[in-house]
Amino acid sequence: MKPLVTASLPAQSGNFEILAFESGVASQPHLVIRTDQSAGALPLIRIHSECWTGDVVGSLKCDCGPQLNKSLELVAKEGGAVIYLRQEGRGIGLIEKLRAYNLQDEGMDTFEANEALGHQRDGREFGIAGEILKSLGWFNIRLLTNNPEKVQDLETAGVRVAEAIPLEIKANPHNEAYLKAKSLEGQGLA
After folding, report:
1. Which of 65, 78, 89, 177 is most buried, most CB within 10 Å of its CB?
2. What string of pLDDT tens digits covers the 190 residues of the chain?
3. Pairing assessment for the beta strands 44-49 and 80-85 based on DSSP bridges
4. Left (φ > 0), alpha (ψ -120 to 50) or beta: where does 125 sit?
5. Mutual orientation of helices 127-135 and 148-156 as an angle, nearest 10°?
6. Residue 80: count of CB within 10 angstroms of its CB
7. Residue-range domains of the chain with CATH
């Protein structure tokens, strides 16, 4: 697996290199936003699933935007990468995610809403992140997450997770139920 293109990316949280990888949709590649790590240090990695509403416009219904911003800050400081996977709305896409928002406003949690729309509770997969990491020569990492599924998928793909580091984001009145549902689902808060 090779990047389709690589470019420099100065950003608010630091200076990065951005790499685009094939996702199956030409206009929406998976992205790696990386910086150098200290010699001998294990890279800090965050696998972040696309969330247009949280990442771009700052939706308060989720914790995605703050997770992405905090991850970029930590990676800029410690070295490593944010892998931005194109699997919007737990893998259901933006239109269906907005439909799920309507069901959540009626009292369903995020998982129930996905099922009511005929989707899996969580259709995301993280194995591709393992393939991307291996293509970059990273076989041993520290992972910024609370989601044990990410650890399992990476290790199945042949990437050793030496440490899972919690990513703590404070709840707000709009996302308290969402964060509670994630926690009950066993995915922690990230």
Report:
1. 89
2. 899 999 999 999 999 999 999 888 888 999 999 998 776 789 999 999 999 999 999 988 888 999 999 999 999 999 999 999 999 888 888 998 999 999 989 998 888 888 999 998 888 889 999 999 999 999 999 999 988 999 999 999 999 999 999 998 887 777 676 777 766 665 544 4
3. parallel
4. beta
5. 50
6. 26
7. 5-87+124-184 (3.40.50.10990)
**Integer CA distances (angstroms), 43 to 34, 36, 77, 178, in order:** 10, 8, 11, 30
Neighbours of 118 (CB within 10 A): 8
Residues shown for the chain: 190
Q: Are 87 and 125 in contact (CB under 8 A)?
A: yes
Q: For residue 53, which amino acid is it?
A: T
> How far is it, in rounded angstroms, from Cα 18 to Cα 16?
6
Q: Is the pTM of this model over 0.90?
A: no
At which residue do the structure tokens 């509770």 appear? 121
